[in-house]
Write a structure and sequence with these properties.
Elements: H1 2-18, H2 29-39, H3 58-72, H4 77-126, H5 132-161, H6 164-176, H7 184-190, H8 202-221, H9 226-281
Helix pairs in contact: 1-4, 2-4, 3-4, 3-6, 4-6, 4-9, 5-9, 6-9, 8-9
């Protein structure tokens, strides 16, 4: 009876999770910013004076481009198109990540519900009474796996993507200001070139070093740095795509690791204690 009730509750939860949500729900900041960029008209930018939603480094970058336009004039359409393209890719990545995490949770919840359905069924069938502490430890071990999974996901995400946003901001600002009549030192200050020293990921340090060397050379000898910036943008896109692939592989490995450490052993532990207790009664 308990197992039937347990599965009935599980089916109700599954139906609630899969039912369509209201479409009038407020958009997340990233999607709201992307909608704002799609509606933005550079020729009538004074009409778009509303405060931008805060989303990663994209909001700061758009605000900086608009501020530069007001202060120094010039066109930044190409820079905004690049920002919109990068934002769209980021939103697709975040959507894919959410689907992966919720799919992993659903998978773990199915395993959790089936294992506890089996535990309750085996308990009622064999009439073997195990210590309450055994059930408690099994439950806590599985819950611990559910808690650690999103924590490890955030750690992996921070490792692969924490510094790349600041790098993109510097590259886009440098590209946008390449034709503006400002001193090199002022441009590099606005692009936050020397703040990039905080980036410690080994795959990004090389790009940071090349960028800072190019800026220092341009500051000493003059000349345009635009060609170097274009090359570094291409290299940064390659690194970002590579990081996405590495992140997806690590996430799949993490999902398997959580299942093999926290869910399968707890199920096998119950089988062991059940058989041990059953054999002692014979």
């Amino acid at each position: 009876m308990l197992s039937v009730s347990f599965y009935f509750i599980w089916l109700l939860g599954l139906f609630y999770w899969l039912k369509p949500r209201s479409k009038e729900k407020k958009l997340p900041p990233g999607e709201e910013l992307f909608r704002w960029l799609k509606k933005f008209n550079w020729e009538r930018r004074e009409d778009h004076s509303t405060k931008l939603p805060e989303y990663k480094f994209f909001s700061s970058l758009v605000n900086l481009l608009l501020e530069m336009s007001r202060r120094f004039g010039g066109q930044y359409k190409e820079a905004l198109l690049s920002v919109k393209e990068s934002l769209n890719q980021d939103l697709q990545f975040e959507k894919k990540l959410r689907e992966f995490i919720w799919g992993s949770y659903f998978q773990k919840f199915c395993i959790f519900s089936m294992s506890w359905g089996f535990i309750l069924f085996a308990k009622s069938l064999t009439e073997v009474h195990l210590s309450f502490s055994i059930y408690f430890v099994i439950l806590c071990w599985q819950i611990l796996g559910l808690i650690l999974f999103p924590i490890f996901c955030r750690i992996l995400k921070r490792y692969y993507f924490s510094g790349i946003g600041q790098l993109w901001l510097s590259l886009y600002v440098l590209k946008a200001l390449a034709s503006v009549s400002l001193s090199r030192s002022e441009i590099f200050k606005m692009a936050q070139i020397y703040e990039l020293n905080a980036i410690k990921h080994k795959n990004l340090e090389n790009i940071v070093h090349k960028l800072q060397s190019s800026c220092e050379l341009s500051l000493k000898q003059g000349g345009s740095y635009l060609k170097d910036i274009e090359e570094l943008i291409s290299e940064c896109k390659f690194i970002e795509k590579w990081h996405v692939e590495l992140f997806e592989k690590r996430m799949n490995a993490l999902k398997l690791l959580i299942l093999s450490i926290f869910f399968l052993p707890s199920y096998l532990a119950f089988i062991y204690f059940l058989l041990h207790s059953f054999l002692n009664r014979i």
